[in-house]
Amino acid sequence: MFRKALLGGVAFAALSLTTTGSAFAQYDVNSRIDALEHELRELKSQVGARDAKIEALEQKTTAIDNLPKFDSKKLKVTSADGKYSMEIFGRIQIDAMTGDDDDLNAGHNIGSSIEFRRARMGVKGKLAGDWGYKLEVGYDVGADEIGVEEVYIEYKGLGFADVTVGKFKAPWSLEEQTSSRFISFMERGMMNEFAPGKNTGLGLSTGGDNYSFAVAYQFEGGLVDGSDGTSDEDQGIIARGTFAPVTTDTELVHLGLSGYYMSDQDGTERVRARPEIHVSDRLIDTGNIAGVSDIWTINPEVAVAFGPFSAQAEYVFAEIGRDGAGTSDMDASGGYFFVSYFLTGESRAAFYEADAGKFDRPKVNGAWEVLGRVSYLNLDDTNFPSADRGEETNYTLGLNHYFNPNVRALVNYVYADVDHPAAGVESEDAQILGARLQVDF
Question: Cα separations (Å) of 427 from 67, 93, 113, 419?
Answer without folding.
Answer: 66, 33, 25, 5
